[in-house]
Amino acid sequence: MKAVHQVEVLDTPSDLKDKGIQKVAEAVNGLVADAFALYIKTKNYHWHMSGRHFRDYHLLLDEQADQIFATIDPLAERVRKLGENTIRSVAHIAQLQRVKDNDEDFVAPKDMLVDLMNENKKMAKAMRDAHKVADDAEDVATASLLEVYIDETERRVWFLFETTRELN
Questions:
Q1: Structural domain tally of the chain?
Q2: Longest dimension (CA), the chain
Q3: Structural domain of residue 76, as residue ranges?
């Protein structure tokens, strides 16, 4: 009996070219790692928010964290639909994430909001870059998924930007 490699067992059939699939999977796995890291960072700031606008910011960040979290499974499943492996552990996330952690004991509310605005801006750019990779691979499904997430990410940037405008 011929031995079957584990990778072959997980290899989902696709009509896309192997080289394109690998590039899309790499780009999307980076987004999955970033989404996990941005989710945790957003929840960190949500839990540690303080100040006179506490309730508004606490609720805003909770809503944004939920939205970010909701992107993780569809993105990871997209990688699996392409027959590739996706994130397997927290260590794997740490290897791929571009979102910078913040382990400070205290961060001022405005600094939290500005940091999240900048991280979301970087996330939108990374999504647009991944969209280009998907377009080049003729992967319409991944590109379509990313279009919705780009819009949601840009909305988060907008809300965070507008929220910081009146803070001194």
A1: 1
A2: 72
A3: 20-164
- Alpha carbons 79 and 108: distance in angstroms, whole number: 37
The alpha-helical segments, DSSP class H, found in 49-89 are: 54-81
Helix and strand element counts for the chain (H, E): 6, 0
Global confidence as pTM:
0.91
Distance of alpha carbon 155 from alpha carbon 134, whole angstroms: 22
Taking the C-alpha atoms of residue 113 and residue 80, their distance in angstroms, rounded to an integer, is 34
Per-residue pLDDT band at 1 (split at 50, 70, 90) = very low
Over the stretch 4-54, which tens digit does the pLDDT of each residue have? 444 565 666 676 777 899 999 999 999 999 999 999 999 999 999 999 999
AA letter at 152:
E
69, 46 contact by CB (below 8 A): no
Chain centre to alpha carbon of residue 66: 12
CATH number, domain at 63?
A: 1.20.1260.10
Rounded distance between C-alpha atoms, residue 35 and residue 99, angstroms = 8
Say if residues 25 and 127 touch (Cβ distance below 8 Å).
no
Does 33 reside within a domain? Answer: yes
**What's the token pair of residue 140?**
């319409």
Cα distances (Å, whole numbers) of residue 147 to 5, 25, 81, 82, 156? 35, 17, 18, 18, 14
